[in-house]
Amino acid sequence: MELKIQNLSKAYSNGVQALNNISLTIPRGMFGLLGPNGAGKSTLMRTIATLQDADNGSISLDGIDISENKQTIRERLGYLPQDFGLYPRINAELMLDHIAQMKGVIKKGDRKNLVASLLQKVNLYQHRKKGLGTYSGGMRQRFGIAQALIGNPSLIIVDEPTAGLDPSERNRFYNLLSEIGENTIVILSTHIVEDVSTLCSRMAIICAGELMMEGKPKDGIDQLKDKIYKKAIQKESLDSYKKEYQVISTKLVEGELNLRVESDTSLGNGFEPVSADLEDVYFSHIAKKVDPITL
Ligand code: ADP
Predict the structure, then answer these.
(1) What pTM value is reported for the model?
(2) How large is the average pLDDT for residues 11-36?
(3) Residue-wise pLDDT tens digits, 170-199
(4) Please, are residues 188 and 195 in contact by the beta-carbon 8 Å criterion?
C-alpha cells in the first residue's frame, strides 16, 4: 500500500504558488506532514482527497491515478478536513447513519452495527443521542474520525486535527489515531511538532510550497547531531545574533530570549551544546524559507 506524489505543483489565481514540484512517497502507517501556516498543507491534502486539481504532476494510490479515478479513490478515502460543518441539532448516531447511507452501506441492520461500533471506537457511545452542537472540540474531532472511518478506507487524511484541543483531549485523540494507523495510510497534517513526534514513523516538512525534508523523525534528528547550541540573551541583541549566527528558533522566558542556533563548528561566546530534538529539525528546515519563529 503506497501513495505516490510526483512533481505536484499548484498556483492559485492570485499568483500564490501553494505547491512547488512536490514529490513524496507515503507508505502504510502514520505519516506526519509538518509545516507552518500557509505552507501548502491543506492544498496538498485537498488535492489528495480529490477535492481540487493540481496544475502539474500526479498522485497515485497503489498505482491508481487519483485524478483519473476520482470515484474509486473517494471510496477508499476517509477525510477529516480542517473545518467541517456539523448540523448542531442532529445527534451523532443519526448523523453517522446518514453518512454511512451516503457512502453506500445500504442495509439498515449493517448500518446500525457499524454506527454502534464506530461510536464505541471513538468513545462517544454514551453521547450518541446528544446534538453535535453540544460537543466539545475533542468530541467533535473524534466524531470526525468516526465519519472518516466509514467504508474501511485504505487512506485517511486528517488536516490539523489537534488545533484547539486541550492536553487531555489531545492525548485521547492521539491514542485513537495511533490505533487506526496500523493497517492504513494515515496522513496527519499539522503545524504542531509534538503531534508528529508522538505519532508518526515517517514525516515530511513543507514550507512555502516546497518539500524541505522527508524521512524518519529520528534520521532528521541524527542529521543535526552536535550542531545545535543554545544561549539566553537580552531581547534587544537578537538582531546582532541573527547577523552572526544561524538562529533557528527563539523562546521568550521571563524577559530573556532563549536562542537555538545551528552550527557545523563548535561555538564559544557563551553558547552551550545541546542535543537536537524534532523541533530543531523543523525550525532548522523552515528557517531556510522564513524568519526564525518565536515560540
Ligand atoms: P496550510 O494548510 O499549510 O496553512 P494552505 O494550503 O491553506 O496552507 O495555503 C497555502 C498558500 O496558498 C497560502 O499562501 C494561502 O494563503 C494560499 N491559498 C490557499 N487557498 C487559496 C485559495 N483558494 N485562493 C488563493 N490562495 C489560496
Answers:
(1) 0.90
(2) 96
(3) 888 888 888 887 789 999 999 899 999 989
(4) yes
207 lines ligand 1 (CB under 6 A): no
Q: Is 157 exposed, middle or buried (0-12, 13-18, 19+ CB in 10 A)?
A: buried
pLDDT score for 292: 63
Residue 43 in grid coordinates: 492544498
Residue 79 grid cell = 477525510
DSSP 131: B
The angle that helices 92-102 and 108-121 make with each other, rounded to 10 degrees, is 130
Q: Which pLDDT tens digit goes with each residue over 103-116?
A: 888 999 999 999 99
Name the residue ranges covered by the structural domains of the chain: 2-86+135-221, 222-294
The single-letter DSSP state of residue 291 is P
Instruction: Find out whether the beta carbon of 51 lies less than 6 Å from any atom of ligand 1.
Output: no
For residue 44, the ligand 1 atom closest to its alpha carbon is: 6
User: Could you tell me if 21 and 9 are in contact, meaning their C-beta atoms sit under 8 angstroms apart?
Assistant: yes
Q: Average pLDDT in the 10-25 region?
A: 97
Q: Is the pLDDT confidence value at 150 over 60?
A: yes
Q: Is the CB of 42 under 6 A from ligand 1?
A: yes
41 C-beta closer than 6 A to ligand 1: yes
CATH topology of domain 2-86+135-221: Rossmann fold (3.40.50)
